[in-house]
Fold this sequence. Notes:
There is one protein chain. By secondary structure, the protein is an alpha+beta fold. Helix content is 36%, strand content 19%. The chain has 2 domains: 153 residues, CATH 3.30.1330.130; 36 residues, 2-Layer Sandwich (Wheat Germ Agglutinin (Isolectin 2), domain 1). The strands form 3 sheets. Strands 1, 2, 3, 4, 5 and 6 form a 6-stranded mixed sheet that branches. Helix 1 crosses helix 3, helix 2 runs parallel beside helix 3 and helix 2 runs parallel beside helix 6. The radius of gyration is 20 Å and the shape is globular. The model has no long low-confidence stretch (mean pLDDT 95). Bound molecules: zinc ion (2 copies). One zinc ion (ZN) binds next to helix 2.
Amino acid sequence: MNDTTILADALAFHGHKCWASTAGVRLGLAAMETLGASRAGAKQLHAIIETGDYHGGMCFGDGIQFTTGCTFGKGNIEKTGEGKFAVTLVDKAANRAVRVAYRPTLQPRIKATPFMQKRAAGVPPTEIPESEQMEVVSLVWDAPADEIMTVGPVQAREWREPEEVVRFFTCPGCGELVAEPYARVAEGKIVCTACSGYPR
Ligand SMILES: [Zn+2]
Ligand SMILES: [Zn+2]
């Protein structure tokens, strides 16, 4: 592939160099290419990733966020929590979606690299020499697409966007800015959830 700037920028955003973020970059780009979509500057796209919490390879999600522009900040990405490395990308305007899943054909080679051996021994990725980090990245980056991913069929997918509330208030308790739907009433005063003392 020759989108090396995208890869370098994605890895800089991610913070270290690893197979899972690289896989996320490749699958994210493939999903967009399949839909003929470009990166979401606003909320044109919605991504559903299948990674979970507290497991190896969650870095996949950063590759998806960086390439698709679907980010947790904008709220146009969600996680199903299945511990899998796949993304469904929805093009909202076109009402179309595609699921792209990582294929683990490279896993024995990835596992055998000095990088992964050290990771398995508990060494943080940032303390592993850059050349060893890049060896793993290159394995995933240079692999033919059909070896590392399965691109599903483009399918019709209706998208209904909930309306976004763009009103805020300043909580009289803590003086901080709060989105209106999160207001609580406590002892007759409109306050934030923390100041109300109510459970979230
Ligand atoms: Zn990573
Ligand atoms: Zn408050």
